[in-house]
Amino acid sequence: MGLTEEVIAIVELCIYIPIFPLALIVIFRHGWKKQLGWIYLAIFCLVRIAGAGFKIASVKYPDNSTDLEWSAILQSVGLSPLLMATMGLLKRITDEVSETIPSDQNSYGNTAMAGFVSQSRVGNIITKRATAISRRSRIIQIAQLPTMIALILCVVGGTDESSSDISEHSTGQTYTKVGIAIFIVIYVLLFGLTVITGADLGNAPRGEKRIYFAVVAALPLIAVRLLYSILADFTSISNFSIADPDPWVQLFMAVVEECIVVLMYTLAGLTVAA
Predict the structure, then answer these.
(1) Which residues of the chain have pLDDT under 50?
(2) Residue 130: Cβ within 10 Å count
(3) 10, 80, 105, 198: most buried, per Cβ within 10 A?
(4) What is the pTM of this model?
(5) Res 1: pLDDT
């Protein structure tokens, strides 16, 4: 049997079903304060499990159009939790660095000396850096809102495109394209914030550096996954068709990248101290 979308769906179930409980372990292990990235990772696993289930059901029962519709919708919304998981992990690193920099002021031995340093040139630089890092963390937090909006647009767009009413297809395509455009902006922002955070990585604990390198390694993979969505929604290339994509293209431009990112983030969560 050659590669088909059903085979890909079965492979996804074999991967994400065991990863999902591991993601839950990471969430409870790190507590509810620093687990934001892994919550979205767990949501992503659920989305992929559900999507694979609908895809298999659509093959077994081709007369049921609902299964095929939900499979296509869930396939299109995978980018959102993946981007939000990346933002959550980057925010965790940024917060750790923010907490580390001000603490250096206390190493001068007493309050009077710390006060003197805070008024000095070096103290001002430290304060400005801590403030900049705090703002960066706030930007990451705010960026989650447009990512959620993009998710909603893709869901609505996917629903309209799968509708039996042909008049809704054009509107659905527009919603989906706007959602993908927002994802592109979020990715560019995320890439820039990751590069900037690298300058402060020396102040991060060793475990947080491991998470940072996982994020850095994930960005090119997410870029390929984003490119797949762009080609699927903005071009008419048959290999990237949402309704009937080429299984090999889907495998190597979407499925593999997603799996690697999820595995890296999960391993990082299991190996980093809580």
Answers:
(1) 101-118, 122-128, 130
(2) 21
(3) 80
(4) 0.85
(5) 56
pLDDT, tens digit (0-9, with 9 covering 90-100), for 54-74: 999 988 888 887 888 888 888
What is the DSSP track for the chain?
----HHHHHHHHHHHHHHHHHHHHHHHHHHTTTS-HHHHHHHHHHHHHHHHHHHHHHHHH-TT-HHHHHHHHHHHHTTHHHHHHHHHHHHHHHHHHHHHHHHHGGGGGSSHHHHHHHHHSHHHHHHHHHHHHHHHHHHHHHHHHHHHHHHHHHHHHHHHHHTSS-GGGHHHHHHHHHHHHHHHHHHHHHHHHHHHHHHTTGGGS-HHHHHHHHHHHHHHHHHHHHHHHHHHHHH---GGG-SSS--HHHHIIIIIHHHHHHHHHHHHHHHHS--
The residue behind tokens 């394209």 is 177
